[in-house]
């Protein structure tokens, strides 16, 4: 047995097709119209059955919206880079409801976006972890990468100095150019809260490797 598709009822079929194809990069696989019973189906996905699960969109004639209720959760999509995926969605006019970052209580990087009908879609980062803002800045301070076993308490101290420098420099600034001392580092901060989290995770990782 295998999952073949997930069905979502939508209020505007073309609007939803545009979102899933143009914003999320799916392909429109096939459509089926049934005037007698007043509904139209559209199947989309990153591949066809049976190799890939598909998304079935159902439009019932004359029904423009649905109550989401409390039972529906989300659809999950694997992406190589959740940060880049969110930026791509926003660039195409999509709605990111949870920016990319580690899941609460874990290290897996996730994000959430919302389709035109209010359905949530989760991005789950798979594969090689790309460099975060903290990684890029850490390299300027000579701190080794996230996947390097040579990390030590010394690296943790360096990252703590970096965090203090960031807090000193931003002083309430949440977007723009950030100039850090020791040595001079110039980079763009799009989400200072996320950068704080990333730096603290790096510090924790350094200390954990030293145990």
Strand and helix layout:
Layout: E1 5-9, H1 13-23, E2 27-34, E3 39-45, E4 54-60, E5 75-79, H2 82-91, E6 95-102, E7 109-114, E8 120-125, H3 133-140, H4 153-170, E9 176-180, E10 185-189, H5 192-210
The percent range for helix content is: 25-40%
Low-confidence stretches: 143-151, 172-190
- Cα(first) to Cα(last) distance is 45 Å
The number of helical elements comes to 5
Computed over alpha carbons, the radius of gyration is 22 Å
Measured by DSSP, the beta-strand proportion falls in 25-35%
Largest sheet: 4 strands, mixed
Give the ordered list of helices and strands.
Answer: EHEEEEHEEEHHEEH
The global form is elongated
Indicate the structural class.
Answer: alpha+beta
Strand order of the largest sheet: 1-4-3-2
How many beta-strand elements? 10
Rounded average pLDDT? 78
What does this structure look like?
- With 211 residues, the protein is α+β, with helices and mostly antiparallel strands.
- A hairpin with a 4-residue loop joins strand 2 and strand 3.
- It is built from five helices and ten strands; from the N terminus they run E-H-E-E-E-E-H-E-E-E-H-H-E-E-H.
- The strands form three sheets. Strands 1-4-3-2 form a four-stranded mixed beta sheet, with helices on one face. A four-stranded mixed beta sheet has the order 5-8-7-6. The chain has a two-stranded antiparallel sheet with strand order 9-10.
- Helix content is 31%, strand content 29%.
- Helix 3 crosses helix 5 (192-210).
- The protein is elongated and about 70 Å long.
């Amino acid at each position: 047995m295998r999952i073949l598709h997930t069905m979502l009822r939508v209020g505007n079929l073309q609007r939803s097709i545009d979102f899933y194809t143009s914003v999320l990069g799916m392909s429109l696989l096939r459509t089926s119209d049934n005037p007698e019973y007043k509904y139209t189906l559209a199947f989309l996905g990153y591949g066809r059955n049976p190799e890939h699960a598909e998304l079935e969109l159902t439009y019932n004639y004359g029904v423009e919206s649905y109550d989401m209720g409390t039972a529906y959760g989300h659809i999950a999509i694997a992406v190589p880079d959740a940060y880049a995926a969110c930026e791509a969605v926003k660039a195409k006019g999509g709605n990111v409801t949870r920016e990319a970052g580690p899941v609460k209580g874990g290290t897996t990087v996730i994000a959430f976006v919302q389709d035109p009908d209010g359905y949530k879609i989760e991005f789950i980062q798979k594969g090689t972890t790309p460099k975060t803002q903290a990684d890029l800045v850490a390299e300027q301070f000579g701190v080794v990468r996230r996947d390097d076993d040579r990390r030590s308490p010394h690296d943790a101290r360096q990252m703590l100095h970096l965090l203090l420098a960031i807090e000193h420099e931003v002083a309430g600034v949440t977007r723009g150019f950030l100039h850090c001392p020791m040595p001079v580092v110039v980079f763009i901060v799009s989400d200072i809260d996320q950068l704080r989290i990333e730096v603290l995770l790096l510090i924790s990782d350094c200390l954990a490797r030293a145990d």
